[in-house]
């Protein structure tokens, strides 16, 4: 479904000296949607009964990723919102991206921040990461394997998008 983008030829601030200025003209052009999210599901490497779900939206100037997990013990109800983190490359220290939590939940903020920083560093673009993945009973090895799986999946989608 095409969208209509309106453009105004009038400057944003009109001068006060012209009280009787002619009305501005507005032109419209049809624009196709530019958001095409990709969805991936994969089992966690060390816990095959737990599934990691990703929704990746590659944008021209950034990327948007949502991460969640499911396992047989959870019901089929909706998952909680989780944390939402923004990270951007650091021009002065390229190996230390800057990040800020936009919405923080104690159980998922570390995972979301880690993934957002890695994506910002690898892509050279800002990254938005939403995470409601739960690694409560798993060890640090499982969480790090999850980070690797997420980053590999996201980078695969983003690299494929740049080839097209």
Automatic annotation (TrEMBL):
InterPro entries per the record? PAC4
Query: What is the name attached to this protein's record?
Result: Uncharacterized protein
> Native species of this protein?
Stereocaulon virgatum
